[in-house]
Write a structure and sequence with these properties.
Elements (H helix, E strand, L loop, with lengths): L1 H12 L6 H13 L1 H22 L4 E9 L6 E4 L1 H16 L10 E4 L5 E13 L1 H68 L5 H35 L30 H21 L5 E13 L8 E10 L7 H67 L5 H36 L6
Keywords: Cell outer membrane, Membrane, Transmembrane, Transmembrane beta strand, Transport
GO molecular function, one term: efflux transmembrane transporter activity
Subcellular location: Cell outer membrane
């Protein structure tokens, strides 16, 4: 019954940790983290690729011009003289004149000589399913990049919270060792005084000196651990590594273990869903091989010899082009089979990931419950160790306890404080991991 009540308190009785300063740091990290900036660059690139895909629906207009100079080569022979000279001769006889001169046969170069052609060339797709499905795929790839960004953001939030709690843990550890140092230094002073008055032997003085050295060493180690924790936290939020970190004042609040499973909202599943949708459009893109492609074109320009420009030089030329592939050696058939296998693979991955996420949730939630139980046990031990230390200290001052008993009580008190501090922030670290697994943190 007692355990049931304890678990109920752990689930319902503890208030949430004060998140104001931590939330500010999280928002700083989400805005300034270098990896997030790189993800944003990828998203921008995908957006430009989408704009490029959309631009394929619009006409393409270009200015084309060429000039040719030719001599020799193949010709076209036109027998104008052979055809018209007999007629002209008859006409001259009838009219008794030379009004109709003799003509020479002509030989015209196939390659135009001293010829120019300048035009505005316009083409536009009228029916092309490849362009349609390509646009859809590019749009979905942009959404996929955004999902990947959200996945990293959630991971970053967890890392920032974990680093923050470890920093608070190190700061509290420093405070505990400072209090312990003050305590052992007082013991050192008292023992030296008692030794001078021949109340105790030199062993107690040496032991108290050693305790001072040991606690000083532990304090220095705790400071270095704290500096490392500060450096890593500032690195995560892209601040100067030696920047001071503001600390929330609420030190003994605990998270709640009563968290409902919400793994269906994980971005990893959304990513697989999006991958499935992209694969479906790739399948349709492959099948569009069977559909015809229709496009239109129009030319408006001038062409003539010797750079002449007049009404006869102007021209337009327009039309439509149809392309319909009939046979390509079953290339697209085998492409489609590859896409179908990818679809089966994505479905299998989705089922596997769902099970993994559920397992991850259960394990992480159990870790949080264990951490809360450990904190509760350490807190009780801390209260008992404090009472025991107070009693032994009083007896020692009255001469009814030896120094070894006092030293043991003080060590138990210090260790109990350290263990309680560790289990407190381990509970918050476990909660941050559960929050990540359950995707419950709201990304702004």
């Amino acid at each position: 019954m007692k355990k049931a009540i304890t678990f109920t308190l752990l689930c319902f009785g503890f208030i949430g940790y004060s998140q104001s300063k931590l939330d500010n740091y999280i928002q700083i990290g989400l805005k300034s983290n270098e990896i997030i900036k790189q993800h944003n660059f990828d998203i921008n690139k995908s957006m430009y690729a989408l704009q490029e895909a959309r631009s394929l629906f619009y006409p393409t207009v270009s200015l084309n011009a060429n000039y040719t100079k030719a001599d020799g080569g193949r010709t076209i022979d036109i027998p104008i003289g052979d055809m018209l000279n007999p007629v002209y001769s008859t006409l001259n006889q009838i009219t008794n004149s030379n009004a109709f001169p003799s003509l020479q046969n002509q030989s015209v170069l196939i390659n135009p000589d001293n010829f120019y052609d300048a035009k505005i060339h316009t083409t536009m797709p009228l029916l092309n399913y490849e362009i349609i499905y390509n646009k859809r795929i590019k749009s979905q790839q942009t959404s996929l990049q955004k999902i990947e960004l959200e996945i990293y953001q959630r991971e970053l939030v967890k890392e920032i919270k974990t680093a923050y709690y470890k920093y608070l843990q190190s700061i509290e550890g420093i405070n505990i060792y400072r209090d312990a140092l003050a305590l052992v230094k007082e013991n050192q002073r008292v023992n030296q005084s008692l030794f001078k008055n021949d109340k105790i032997n030199r062993t107690a003085v040496l032991r108290s000196d050693n305790e001072v050295i040991r606690i000083e060493a532990n304090l220095e180690t705790a400071k270095q651990v704290s500096n490392t924790a500060k450096t890593y936290f500032n690195f995560l939020i892209n601040q100067k590594l030696d920047s001071e970190i503001e600390i929330d004042s609420d030190k003994e609040s605990l998270p709640s273990a009563l968290v409902l499973e919400n793994t269906s909202g994980r971005e990893e599943l959304s990513k697989l869903t999006m991958a499935k949708d992209i694969n479906e459009n790739v399948s349709k893109l492959t099948q569009s091989y069977w559909y015809p492609k229709l496009s239109g074109f129009a030319d408006f320009g001038f062409q003539d010899f010797d750079f002449e420009v007049n009404k006869q030089s102007r021209y337009y030329f327009a039309g439509a082009a149809l392309e319909w592939t009939i046979f390509s050696g079953n290339k697209n058939k085998y492409k489609l089979k590859q896409v179908q296998e990818d679809s089966k693979k994505i479905s299998s991955q989705t089922d596997n990931v769902k099970q993994q996420l559920l397992l991850q949730f259960q394990v992480t939630r159990n870790n949080l419950i264990s951490a809360l139980e450990q904190f509760n046990a350490d807190k009780n031990q801390k209260a008992a160790a404090q009472k025991y230390n107070e009693d032994i200290t009083k007896l020692y001052k009255e001469g009814q306890a030896i120094y070894i008993e006092l030293l043991d009580a003080q060590n138990q008190w210090v260790n109990a404080q350290l263990n309680t501090n560790i289990s407190l922030y381990n509970s918050w670290i476990a909660y941050a991991e559960l929050e990540r697994v359950n995707a419950t943190f709201t990304l702004k």
